[in-house]
Amino acid sequence: MNKETLESRRECLTRQRDAVKHRLKNLAARQSKITRRSLAIKESIIRKYEELQKVLEEDMRLTLAFLDVEERAAVYALDGLMESNCSLIQEIEQDLARITAEMSQEEMQPESMVTLISHLLISADPSSVSLDEAKADQILSLTDSMFLLIRSQTPITKHLIKAYSSEVSLDPETAHPKLLISPGGDSATYTHAWQELVDLPRRFDTTLNAISLQGFSGGRHYWEVDVTGKTYWELGLTYPTIARKGNAEDCWLGRGKESWCVEFFDGEYTAWHGGVPHQLPVTRRFRRIGILCSFPAGMVTFLGADDLTPLFCFCAGRFTHPLHLAVCPGHDHNGANVNPIVICNLT
């Protein structure tokens, strides 16, 4: 092989060597880029999973807290029923002793005590107090499906509750003459002027109440009411049999056995039913209040709807009449409570 041929071959090999070195350099750069990119992706995924864990932990906290409130309400209701039965046993023992003493004189007690006992045994049926098993099953079902679309399904309780949304409108013929009801029936506003309205039997004439036109006799229902900027309000559910005339205490929401409510006044929350107040350990002001009613569970639950903070849960056991949404926007409270109370349209 001559010198010229060898020189040509050397140049060719030199170019090939340089090309291979360049390719090796590019491969190393590519390898480094892939390693850095993979590391960045892993770090991003780790952050997403950490955020997801926080979302799940918060969702679990809200769900368990919500169920815990219902459990406490059911236990509280059963305690009350057991106390009533213990009191009745004492009365029966006294009556038995009295009847025994009077047997020699052939005198019998009237049937009123027998009627009272029968009524209490019916109203104190243990099966009338229960947790909302159907809702628990739905929570479990939603927990399973949450993995399919985790972000869009949290918090679980919020999606579950809003699925029970029902449309209602306030009945202007029930409203106190100092309340202005919007044309659509979705808000009530206090006014100093006494409106000249027909004094219908169903109109409240002392308490600043209005109730919904629609009543519900079964199923589960949820409403949210906007109370933004208000310093005084009352919200709840009531039977249509609630007293509406005069200064009777039962005309106020929650003061009689026909209604259940939560009251907010000067930064303090109080739950009412049957004239019994329950001071709530909550200080923050919510923009929206949620009211959840479950006929199968016999429960009325109040929530701070902003973040589903449980406020109070009443365990009625069994509802005997249709339930209507009830609102009281309160007086203007020296100009600090002029905002209307608004029923939100969640549908």
What descriptors fit this protein?
single chain; 347 residues; alpha+beta; Jelly Rolls; seven-stranded antiparallel β-sheet; six-stranded antiparallel β-sheet; 38% helix; 20% strand
Explain what the structure shows.
With 347 residues, the protein is an alpha+beta fold. It has 4 helices and 13 strands.
Task: State the gist of this model.
The model has no long low-confidence stretch (mean pLDDT 84). The protein has helices at 3-102, 112-123, 133-146, 156-162; strands spanning 179-181, 187-190, 210-211, 220-226, 232-238, 259-265, 268-273, 276-279, 288-294, 299-304, 309-315, 324-328, 341-343. It is built from four helices and 13 strands.
Number of helices: 4
* Unreliable runs: none
Would you list the SSEs in sequence order as H and E?
HHHHEEEEEEEEEEEEE
Q: Architecture of the domain at 166-343, CATH level 2?
A: Sandwich
Estimated helix fraction: 25-40%
Q: What is the number of beta strands?
A: 13
Record the strand order, biggest sheet.
Answer: 1-2-13-4-9-10-11
Write the topology of this structure:
Blueprint (H helix, E strand, L loop, with lengths): L2 H100 L9 H12 L9 H14 L9 H7 L16 E3 L5 E4 L19 E2 L8 E7 L5 E7 L20 E7 L2 E6 L2 E4 L8 E7 L4 E6 L4 E7 L8 E5 L12 E3 L4
Antiparallel strand pairs: 1-2, 2-13, 3-12, 4-9, 4-13, 5-6, 5-12, 6-7, 7-8, 9-10, 10-11
Helix pairs in contact: 1-2
